[in-house]
Amino acid sequence: IIQKFIIVSLLPPSPLSVQYGIVLDAGSSRTTVYLYQWPAEKENNTGVVSQTTKCLVKGPGISEMNDDSWKYLKTCMDDITKHVPPSQHSSTPIFLGATAGMRLLHIKNEEASNTILQDIQKYLRSLPFNFQNASIISGQEEGLYGWITVNYLMGNFLEKNMWNAWVHPHGAKTVGSLDLGGASTQIAFTAPDDATGEDLIRVSLYGYEYNVYTHSFLCYGKNEAEKKVLAELVKRSTDWSRVNHPCYPADYSITMAASEIFDSECTKKSTPASYSPAKNITFFGGSDPVRCKDLVKRIFDFKSCQGKENCSFEGVYQPPVSGEFMAYAGFYYTAWALDVKGSNTLKQFNTAMLSFCSKPWATLKKNYEITEKHLKSYCYSANYVHTILADGYKFNDDNWENLNFQKEVNQTSIAWSLGYMLAQSNMIPAEAKLLKLPIPNSAFAGLLFVFSALTIITLMFLIITLVRFCF
C-alpha cells in the first residue's frame, strides 16, 4: 500500500524545442498508445504536456494476446514512430502500464502474466525509443495517476502568469477523478487533512501537499460488472435456453457460451453447480427500466456499509465527496449514449436513462450508429453508472451537477497514462522552483496600474512645480 507519493524533478534541461514521451495504456479490453509532447524549456522542467496523437490497438487487451494482437500492436507503433523525429527516437521515453485485466490474470495465473510482460518488454526494447518500464500498476496508482492527469490538464497545479512565469494558481481547487475501465473503476479526490486510512496518500506537487483519497474496485469495471449481472440472472434461472434480461432491449436476443460469463475471477464464486463451459445460454431483452435497476443494484455489496458512516460499498471507507469531479472513460461514453455528457442534473440523467431503457431494439438501431456489442448494453451501463455514483459514492440532487462527463481537455484525452508518464519521468517536482505571488495576477496587475498612475501623476506634479519655480 502506498503511504507517501513524492515526485521529484531529475530531468536535465534540453536544447531541443520539443520533447516526446510514449505511454501504452494496456487496459483489460484494449491497448491505447499515447504520444505526448512538451516544450523543452531551459528555465525549468514544467513545460505543459499535450497529446500529439494516439493509436487504438485492435483486438483484446494484452492479457489475451494472440498473433493478430501482436500484428495490430506493431502497426500502431509504426504509426507512432512516424510522428517522432528520427533524431529524437533514442531520447524519447516509452512506458507500458498494465491495469485491471492483467491484475486479474496475475491472480488467476501468475506465470502467464509474467510471460506476457516479459514478451512485451522484449518487444518494446527492440524499438528505437528509450525503454523505461513495463509493469502491472496497482489500482491505487491507477486512481492517483488519473487524478494527477485531470488536475494537470485543468491547470490546477500551475499556470503561466502575464510575465510568462510559472505560478501556482491563486486559490486553485483540485478536481476529483472518476475513471471507469473494463475490469475496474477508480475514484480519487482531495480529502480533508485530518482524514486517514489506507486509501489516503500524501502527495507533494510543486511545493504543495495534497491529501488524496483514492480507491480502486477490482471486478467493478463496466465489462466485468456486466458479467456479474449476467451471472446473477443465470443463477436465478431454471431454463438456460431462455433467460430474461430486463436491461437488454425488447426484441433483442443473444446466445453465448457459459465460459464467456463464468471464466473470470470476478464471477467464479457465482458459478452454478451445473456449469459446463461450452453450454450455451440465451438472453432475451425486456426493456424494463425498473427491474433493470433492481438487478444492477444486486451486484453491489451495500449491506457491509449499513451502520457505518462514510462508506461506499463492500465496506470500503470513503470521505464525503466534495467539489467538482471529472467523470471520464466508461462514465463519459455512457453519458454520451444518453445525451447527457458534460454537466447535468440527477433528474436529467434519470429521465434520459428511463427513456433509453424503455426503447425496443429496432428503435435503438434506428436512432444510434453504435455497434451491437455496445448498444445492447448501454441501458445496463446507465444503471450501473447511476448506482455507483448515487448509491455508492453518494452523489445526490444537491451535488450531481458537480459531475462533469468529459472525454478530453484541450484535445488531450483524459486518461491515467498522462499522470503516469509525468510521475515516471519525474516531470512534476515535489518542491517548487516557481515564482509565488501572495495575490492573484489580476489583483497584482490592478495594483501595478494604480502604482504606475500615481507615479505618473507625481512626476507631472514635480515637473509643473519645477517649471513654476524656474519661471
Automatic annotation (TrEMBL):
Keyword Phosphoprotein: no
Organism: Astyanax mexicanus (Blind cave fish)
InterPro entries: GDA1_CD39_NTPase
Keyword Membrane: yes
Protein name listed in UniProt: Ectonucleoside triphosphate diphosphohydrolase 3
Transmembrane segments: 443-467
Gene Ontology molecular function: ATP binding; GDP phosphatase activity; ribonucleoside triphosphate phosphatase activity; UDP phosphatase activity
GO CC annotations on file: plasma membrane
Keyword line: ATP-binding, Hydrolase, Membrane, Nucleotide-binding, Transmembrane, Transmembrane helix
PROSITE patterns referenced in this protein's UniProt entry, alphabetically: GDA1_CD39_NTPASE
Family designation: Belongs to the GDA1/CD39 NTPase family.
Superkingdom of the organism of origin: Eukaryota
GO biological process: nucleoside diphosphate catabolic process
Binding site for ATP: G182, A183, S184, T185, Q186
Active site: E142
